[in-house]
Amino acid sequence: MGKPEPEGFDSDFTWEPSILQPYVPSSEEELVRIIEADSSGGKELNDEQLKNRCKKLMDSITSTVFQYVRTGLFERDRLTVSSMICFSILEDEKVIDSSLLQNLLLLPTLAEAPAMPDEVKTWLPENVFNRVAALEATLSSSYESYQDLTSSLSLDQDEWDQWYNFSSPENERIPGKIGLAGEIEQLMLLRAMRPDRLSAALKLFVSKKMGEDYVYAPPFDIKTTFAQSCATSPIFFVLFPGVDPTPWVEELGASLNITTANGLFVNISMGQGQEKPAETTLERMASEGGWVLLQNVHLMQSWLPKLEQKLEVLSANADPKFRCFISAEPPPFSYLKNMPESIMQSALKVANELPSDLQSNMRRAFSKFSDQKFAECKKKEEYKACLFGLCFYHSVILGRRRFGTQGWSRSYGFNLGDLTICSNVLLNYLNASGPNVPWEDLRYIFGEIMYGGHITDYWDRRTNNTYLEVLFNSDLLRGGQLAMGFPSPNPREYDYKLYNQHITNGLREEHPHFYGLHPNAEIGYLTSTTTSIFDTILTLRMGSVSKDDNTKNEGVKDVIKDLMDRLPRQFNLGDIEDRSKKVMETESGPFIVVINQECTRMNRLLQAIFASLVELKKGLNGQLNMSQPMEDLNVALSINQVPGRNPFHLCSWEKLAWPSRKSLSTWFLDLIMRVQQMLSWSKTLETPISIWLPGLFNPTAYLTAIKQVTARRAGYPLDKVTIETHITAHTSIDNLPGEFPAQGAYAHGLFMQGGRWAFGEEATDLGAEQTEIDLVPCNGILAEAKLKELLPPMPIIYLRAVKVDPSWSAESCGYIRPNKEIYNCPVYFTTMRGATYVFLSTLNTKEPPSRWVLAGVCLIMQTDE
Questions:
Q1: How many domains is the chain partitioned into structurally?
Q2: Average pLDDT over all residues of the chain
Q3: Residues 6+ apart with CB under 8 A from 184
Q4: What is the residue range of 90's domain?
Q5: Numbers of helices and strands, H then E, in the chain
Q6: Exposure string (b/e) for 716-744, b if CB count within 10 Å is 16 or more?
Q7: pTM of the full predicted structure?
Q8: Rounded Cα distance, 861 and 852, in Å
Q9: Which of 466, 475, 363 is closest to 419 using CA atoms?
Q10: Which residues contact 221 (CB under 8 A, 6 or more apart)?
Q11: Which of 39, 415, 550, 739 is found 20 to 30 A from 476 (Cα to Cα)?
Q12: pLDDT > 70: what percent of the chain?
C-alpha cells in the first residue's frame, strides 16, 4: 500500500484480499494431469506419491471449503454440516456401507411392537425396547452384531442397565457383540437407546475421522473474514441478541485508516426515509473506495430489491477498496426468507452467536451497569439487589430458549434493550417511592409491559410472570436463593466487582434446575437436536430423488404398495347419516355430530392419500408425466416423511390431517388406529365409554359435546359450563364400569411432559387422598418426573363438565382456577406446543403450582415416535 501499518495491526495482514475460488477439474484424468504437472521439480510421481498427493489436495480443498462455509453457519447447524461432509467422504471411500448409513439416518421401525420381557421393563422404557427390536429385525440378517440383541438385553441386563444409565455412554464400551462392531453400527444402537447422547458421539466420530477443526470452531476473527472479501462481495452479518457487529467493523476500519472522521466510513441504521441516503452513499463509496455499513436491512423489505440491483451495478466498476457491510436478523423460521437470494449468494456470511449458557448471559447483562449506575439511586442497597435479581431474571428467560418448546412455546426476541429500559424504570421507581420497594408494581411493568410485550401466548406469559414472582421479591434483600446454590448477595457488602466475582464463582456448571426445569428437559432438547440433525442430512441426501433413479424408485414403489395394501376403506357417510337421524333427537345427539364430522374429515384424508399414491405410481411407471406434487410426494416417501411436513412441498397429507411430529411409518399406524376407533363408534353410534381423545381430528368438538349434554341435563347456560379433569384410579379401559359418569365421559391416551402422575401408595406417601367424584374413584398427584422418562402415560381421565365458578378467571385459554392445590395444566396435540393447544386440564398438587409452571409441565396427546 505504501503506507505504514497502524500500531497493533498484524504484520502479515494483506490489504488487497481476494476470495478463494478454487479451480475444479472437469474429470479425474484432468486432475491427475494437473497433479503430475504440479509435482516438485518436474519429477514424475510414482503411484504411491500420486495417491498421497491426491489425498492431500482433497483434504486441503475439503478443509478450505468447510472453513469458508462454517463462518456463516448457525451454531445449531455446524454439527449437521460437518457430519454430512464426514458421512459423504467415508461413503465415497467405501469406508462405511451406504445401506447401513441409510438405516442410521432413518432408524427402522416395526409395524407391530414385540412383547417386552418383564425383566427388561424394570429398567428400560418400552419405546426404547421397540426401537432396539426394530434394529434387530432389520439388520440381524446382514450384521452378526445385531443378532439376538433383544435377548442380550434380558440375559445381560445388569451390564446393559449400567451402560444405559451412564451419563456419557458414548465413552463407554457397549455390552454384547455390538461393542465389538463398527462405529456406524454402534452409533445406530446409541441413537436407538440414548438419542440424547448422539450429538456428543457424532462430535467424537467426526473428530476422529476428519479432525477436531471440523467440530470445534475457532473464535471469530473479523480480519480473517475481511481477507476473503473483495469489492464485489458484501460481508453479511447475521444479528443475534447481544451481538452488534458495528464495533468490529469500526475497529478494523480504524486500523486501516477507514474512519468516519476522514469520510471513508459511513454507518447507516436503516429505517423509513433512509433509502435514498443509503443509495447515494453506496455510489459515493464505490467510487472513492470507502466502506458502508447498512444495519437492520431486514426492516426494509420493499427496498431490498433496489439494494440487490444497486450492488450488482456498482460491482462492475467499484474501487477495489470499496466494502459494503450488511446486517440483518434471521427470519423467525428456517424455511422463511427475508433477504434476496443473490445478495446471500454473493456475500460472505458471518453468524457469530454468543454463548447462551446462564453464566454468559448473566455476565453480558450485568456488564451494562457499574458502580456509577448504583450511585444514581437514593436507595443504593435496594437498587443493587433488585438490579442483580433483574439481570438474573433476564438471563434465565434467555437461557430457557435452548430447551425448545418446553422452555417457551413460541419464539420471542428478548434483548438487552428490554433490560436497560427495565433498569431505568427500577431506578425511577425507587427514587420516587417511599421506604418500601413497590414489588407488585415493578413485576407488573416488567412482566406485562416490557418483557411481556414480546409474548403472545398465555402460557408463556404465565411462565414469565411466575419467574418474576419467584425471583423478584423481598427475598433479594435477605439473601434468598435465586437458583440452587446461587443466593442473592448482601447488597451492603457487595460492590460491582464483587457481584461479578459472585457470577463467576456461583454459576460455573449449567443445569436445568437453574431454570426450574427437570433434567429430562435437557435430555429432550438433546434428543430433538439429534432428530433435527439426521432429518436434515436425510433430506439433503434424498431430496434429489429423480424418476430416472431406478434403485431409489423401486424402494418408493415398495412403500406405495405397502401403504395402499394397508390403507383403510372410506366410510359410508350416507349410511351413517341415515342411521344418525333418530339418535340425533336423543340426549346423545351432540356426540353423533362429532362422529359424523370425524368420519367426513377422515374420508377426505383417505381419498387424498389414495389419489396421490395412484398418481405417483403411474408416474413412476411412465404412464403419466411427473408433476411437481408427484416429485414432492416421491421425496417424502423416500425419507419416511409425512407428505406436507416440508412447507415447500406441493403435495400435502398433513393439511387434511391432525398435528403430528411422527415419521410416516408411525403416522400411518396412527391413522389406522383412528379409523378403527371410528369404525367401532360409527357401527353402533354408541359413544365409547372411554374415548381415545388423541385419536380425534377435533378433540375440542368432543369436549363441547360433553358440555352440551351436561348443560341440557342440568339446565345450565352453555357459556357458563366448562371442563375440569379428574385423574381416575384406573390405568386400563378394561377396568372401567360399563356406564358413563354422571357429568361427563372418560378419556385415555394422554401423556405428561415435565413431570409425572404418581398414584397408589406413592401418591399416599406424597399426601394425596383417594376421592370419589360422581362415584368415580380418583387418585394421584403431580410429582417430579423420573430421569429419562420423558413422556410417561397418564391414567384414565374423567372429563367432567361443571358450572363456572365466579372466582375463576376467564382467559383466552379457558377458566383459570385460583386454587393453590390445583395446577392449571395446558393440553397440547404435540410436543411442539404453541398453536397445537387444545384445552385446559386441572391437576391436583401439593407443591406450589409455580414449581410446575417453571418445569413446563403439560399434557401431550401424542408422542413424536
A1: 5
A2: 89
A3: 96, 97, 100, 101, 104
A4: 85-214
A5: 31, 21
A6: beeeebbbbbbbbbbeebeebeeebbebb
A7: 0.87
A8: 19
A9: 363
A10: none
A11: 415
A12: 93
